[in-house]
Amino acid sequence: MPAHPHTSLSTRLAASSVVALLLLTVGCDSPLGGNAEPGRDAQGNVAAVTAGHPLAAEAGLAVLQSGGLAMDAAITAAAVLAVARPHMNGVGGDMFLLYHDSATRLTYALNGSGKSGSAKTLMELKADGLESMPQSGPMSVSVPGAVGAWSEGLRRFGTMSFAQALEPAYQLALAGLPVSERLASDIAAAEAILREEEEAARIFLPGGRPPQPGDILARPDLAETLRTLQEKGAEEMYTGALGRKVVRFIQDRGGLVRLNDMANYLPEWTQPLSGRYQGFEVQVVPPNTQGVTLLEELALLQHHDLEALGHNSPDYLHTVSEAIRLAFLDRDREVADPRAMRVTTEELLEPVRIRSLAETIAPAGRAPSIEVETNADNPNTVYVIAVDQYGNVVSLIQSLFATFGSGLVVPETGIVLQNRGSLFRFDEDHPNVFAPRRRPFHTLCPVIVMSNDRPWLAIGTPGGDGQTHTLTQVINNIALFGMTPQEAIDAPRLRRLNDGSLAIEEAVPQEVRDALEGRGYTVHPRSGLTAEFGGAQAVLVDQISGRRRAGADRRREGWAVAY
Fold first, then answer.
1. Which stretch of DSSP H or E encloses residue 189?
2. Among 92, 130, 349, 441, which residue has the least CB neighbours within 10 Å?
3. What residues act catalytically?
4. Predicted TM-score (pTM) of this structure
5. What is the pLDDT of residues 367-404, one digit of tens each?
6. Where are the beta strands (DSSP E) in 92-236?
7. How far apart are CA 448 and CA 469, in angstroms?
């Protein structure tokens, strides 16, 4: 491979003009090697990108083709997604990433989640009559961390300027977003939410109705915001006039975020958590994410011969479901901002404890009897992978949480504010209890899987609580059942719902679903390809040839490209 570059590529990165041309074209017949066909990986010997929208993936790959690095491509794609998937992520949301540096063979985790506002304490919120954190509106808004994390990722491991990385997103917002069938459907489903807020309705219900496929969704306010960030830098979001406008709006609506909360925000570099699975090292972002939950699921499954059970057999699906159930009991009791957790991740993953829990799983057993309230889930997230010519890898995920986050759009900015604060609890004995300047629990879970101290697989998915369900099954499909990334993603899967029932895609044979019902499960068959089962993306790097094989999920708008 070529030597790792140490000098700036700014004079060589004319990516902005290249990507601007790409943004004028949306379609499945991508000249860069998209994966429009079921089972077909995008393959290349040099680099690969996946993203939750075709325009973002192609924008990221154009950066790589122009000489940029994985971090340059990932942040460029992430910014484009902020425009292309406006109901799922954006300037008003959060972000996490894993970065593997090929030169040092080290992996770094970047926590780009914002903290809660400090305008009131838990006692004051309860005195106001609140019994739980509102699920939407101004009280649900925490500090938006994505913009600062984009900038920090580029500062440490990129070669492009912040302004260059935002240019394709700016161009897309300026020209207007071509509305796909999926986006039209998603906005139509959220119409009632959008009508509750004048600014949200003005932007996303143009002419008083949801946009139709083929329409152009105008985003001049967001374009102006992106241009301001290009000119003044990410700090404008936190200490500049833009940040003051955001805070003034939140405060006027009775929210908790204050100016000093924005000004004190810093993305945080941490060490990834890792665990062994099937001879590989699985790396995740530590709490406040549910990365530890994925590691626990895999650790439990390590004690069972899944290959012998057979892919998507009743015994296999029951075993996977039980591993998810046990890991989620720990997650929902213990995972939070690490500064507030009662136990360590090492204690959750302690081998003797894991072995004891795994022994309670009988592959031929019956569904457990549980009583739990069904809670709303918010699987609205986007994901990006970038693998460059030097072997650097970025696994990045960002989100608003619910559809259109808090439902609030800051006037004259186009910024949709997240509702991550809605995940806080009011139970003072719980580690995820609300407190000023505390990070809430996050479901976001980017992953890098290592083999021989080198990246073998980058993988991630939207899907709220279901992210670890999807990741576990797709990782098994590749690592145990020999599928290519696209085959592994296309394969039918289950999602364990929090009431203990199983949503299972109808491509899983009827006799398998009948067998699970015979064991006491309530099975909800799902027809077609739906976003309920996530939107997995993966890039597999051949350890010998270096060939990149990329796949993306047709259940959403995922796209994989390579060269």
1. helix 181-189
2. 130
3. 381
4. 0.94
5. 998 766 555 565 689 999 999 999 999 999 999 999 99
6. 94-101, 106-112, 177-178, 216-217
7. 16
